[in-house]
């Protein structure tokens, strides 16, 4: 966290922090190519292209932990960066812990987001929640 | 740096800076007073103000007394719309928000004219509405406000045909229909002749033609209805209160005189050739890109190209281009303050995905093929990268 706080204090000419900029330009864990070929134990899709933001999150689970996470996002810099941040936050956590990641946690990790972007573009945790639900229902079936 | 956002604002011309600096120096040495004061310093300011007004009025061939200065294009637009408070106000669906929102606030009723995919208004719709509104009340006061050219797509509206239509109504005795046009983007890019256009009011602004931000003009035909938006002073022939901004007016006039001396209108024809080259190259290298701007010469301004890149949200494209020192703008919701996608693209295509993916390139007068080639080198990898990240990627379609 301290690392992110220090990077976010650097001045960016954009409305975003340097951390947001970094995750936007160098997104972590995104699925390159056809996401349907990315094998997973659960997946979740939230948002709507009509609204301008849509996120897909896919997870691989082993021993109750998120072994790997992949995602795709249609949206602005804030949407891309927040999904990337979520993937970093979730990786390695137990599914219970990962399921408790909040929009605020993602926002804090990124060193803050413009107020008007917060509600519309931080949706990745909801996609992850859906992916975890999907994983759990897959286990039952 | 490649600045392709001149429709947002043009860079200040050195000649404009010089004109304003001269007056600033006079102000420092107390030689430039309040233009409303009767003493020598005041008279000098008044003289400079009138000189600026005359220069600008000459440019659009109207009497100086029919031109007032305001603080912005938005103020000019609001002033006219407000004049017709409680009257029917008919505007195109793709007007600048300062027309659209003001018309919604003051019009009774407020009527939006739909546009086709080129962004051109439906004249039959307007005719039908005028017939309906005048049927029971031939003396009904009505304002029609149609922009001369759109700020996002560059589409030129048939304002002359609108005024010809209104004239038919007037010839039948319906004399209280008035026409306003927001020519903010058009002035200096295409010929603007008030008589030919047949408008009662016209808005245009300094910072779209090399002048300073903070000053605009409003043409008001003598005899046309008018109500001041800002009251409390006799400035601008009692039509707009507030101490006259002589320094900015001089900057505005210097920009206009530059446009005349340097044949800016002709030079924009060279820009048009390059604009079309850009469109043609984009279509070639990114075949799924959708050219939004109608490219026919009589249908769009020479300097604007609006393109939608599918599956690539516009703000992301804009920011990636910014990293390459290329500055553009977008109609995506994310880039707007209100998080709504461009109402202009929505009115044309009724498709939010097209609006979210739209990018406006507005070219400066000194644009070169080499600069556009630099853009074209960067663009495909940027668009492809954003498309790769997207849930709406090509693999799915």
Short structural summary:
The complex is a heterodimer of chains A (141) and B (397). Chain A has 141 residues and is of the alpha+beta class.
Which tags fit this structure?
heterodimer; A: alpha+beta; Sufe protein. Chain: A; three-stranded antiparallel sheet; globular; disordered N terminus; B: 397 residues; alpha/beta; Aspartate Aminotransferase, domain 2; seven-stranded mixed sheet; 14 helices; 13% strand
Computed over alpha carbons, the radius of gyration of chain B is 22 Å
Briefly, what CATH class of chain A?
Alpha Beta
Number of strands of chain A: 3
Average of the residue pLDDT scores of chain A: 88
Domain count of chain B, please report it: 2
Please state how the strands of the largest beta sheet of chain A are arranged side by side.
Answer: 1-2-3
Runs of chain B in which pLDDT lies below 50 for 5 or more consecutive residues are none
**Helix content range of chain B:** 40-55%
The total count of strands of chain B amounts to: 13
Strand content of chain B: 5-15%
Instruction: Figure out the total of helices of chain A.
Output: 7
Instruction: Indicate the radius of gyration of chain A in whole angstroms.
Output: 15 Å
Encode the helix/strand succession of chain B as letters.
EHHEHEHEHEHEHEEHHHEEHEEHHEH
> What is the chain-wise order of helices and strands of chain A?
HHEEEHHHHH
- Uncertain ranges of chain A: 1-10
Task: Please indicate the percent range of residues of chain A in DSSP E strands (runs of 2 or more).
Answer: 15-25%
Counting helices, strands and paired strands, the structural category of chain A is: alpha+beta
Q: Pair with the most extensive interface?
A: A-B, 32 and 25 residues
Distance between the termini of chain B: 36 Å
Number of helices of chain B: 14
